[in-house]
Write a structure and sequence with these properties.
Layout: H1 2-17, H2 29-47, E1 49-52, E2 56-62, E3 65-71, E4 74-77, E5 83-88, E6 92-96, E7 111-114, E8 120-131, H3 136-142, H4 147-164, H5 169-173, H6 177-194, E9 197-208, H7 211-261, H8 264-279, E10 284-287, E11 296-299
Antiparallel strand pairs: 1-4, 2-3, 2-5, 6-8, 7-8, 8-9, 10-11
Length: 301
């Protein structure tokens, strides 16, 4: 737009310079001036309209003076002399990682902190944040467009180092990880809010301990797992022994009841009942052999 205005002004100047000249192109001076004025008008009209895309706001400034109100998304008619700076108000992320090519900075950009027990802990972190739309003029005036490197990165790294000294390395790696994450979230949130930023989420991606400490932790975990496994095996064997004891006791009780509960007369009575049922059968014959002895029953088949 500014370029169009400059081109138009140049054409107008050329048109006036050719007006009283014996140059053969002087007859086109009027046309050149008209084209120049048209281009200037087109440049002015174009610079009067500014489109702000969705998820962004525009901050107006005139000769270094930043205006307090912002342009929301949409098409706006503005002073052609205004300078419009566009800010992204959608959720943004900033990652600091030890893995090359994964973070916002090239190379190893992980945060190295000293724990309460004097060990160096390496932390990979992702910050999710956004700009407060109404505070965009304040950011432009007090911080500038590069608020990520001026605020997000240094504040996050500093607050993590400040809070890591309250925990030992093993606690950061295991039991106190969530507590540490919540603690640094609260402190960073306050700092961001003062500068027109909203901290949405803080994600601790990874915590790396020195190799010796990690080996000690893994050995302890393996020992605890082995102990839990042995406890399970002993409990299972104890239950199996109890089952066998109950089964043996049941068999013993059964044998005792049988041995004490069956008399000779009861056995004789049961024998008579069985013989009677066989005798009434159509397929059996009864043969008595010997005096006083039990009869022998032969089937006719």
């Amino acid at each position: 737009m500014i370029l169009l205005i400059i081109i138009g002004v140049v054409l107008v100047i050329i048109g006036f310079s050719l007006k009283d000249n014996s140059n053969p192109f002087s007859k086109f001076s009027g046309t050149i001036r008209i084209i120049g004025f048209l281009i200037i008008a087109l440049g002015l009209l174009s610079s009067m309209f500014k489109q702000i895309d969705a998820g962004k706001v525009g901050v107006k400034s005139l000769y270094g003076n930043v205006e307090p109100d912002v342009l929301e998304s949409g098409l706006h008619m503005v002073n052609p002399l205004l300078d419009i700076t566009v800010f992204d108000i959608q959720t943004q992320n900033y990652t600091m990682s030890a893995i090359h090519g994964e973070g916002a900075q090239e190379g190893d950009d992980a945060i190295r902190v000293l724990s309460n027990d004097g060990l160096e802990v390496v932390i990979d972190l992702t910050v999710l944040y956004r700009i407060v739309p109404q505070d965009a003029p304040k950011i432009l005036k007090g911080i500038g467009e590069n608020y990520t490197d001026k605020i997000v990165r240094p504040v996050t790294r500093t607050r993590i180092r400040d809070n890591a000294v309250y925990y030992d390395a093993v606690a950061l790696y295991s039991t106190k990880r969530n507590e540490f994450q919540q603690r640094i979230f609260k402190t960073i949130e306050v700092d961001f809010k003062k500068r027109g930023l909203v901290l949405e989420q803080l994600l601790i991606r990874n915590i790396n301990l020195p190799a010796s400490v990690k080996a000690t932790i893994e050995s302890k975990i393996n020992a605890e797992q082995d102990a839990q496994k042995m406890t399970f095996v002993l409990q299972k064997e104890k239950q199996e022994a109890e089952r066998k004891r109950v089964e043996a006791q049941g068999i013993a009780d059964y044998q005792r009841i049988i041995s004490t509960g069956l008399t000779d007369k009861q056995l004789q009575y049961e024998q008579i009942k069985a013989q009677k049922e066989i005798a009434t059968s159509n397929n059996a014959k009864i043969i008595f052999m010997g005096k006083g002895s039990a009869p022998v029953i032969l089937s006719d088949k």
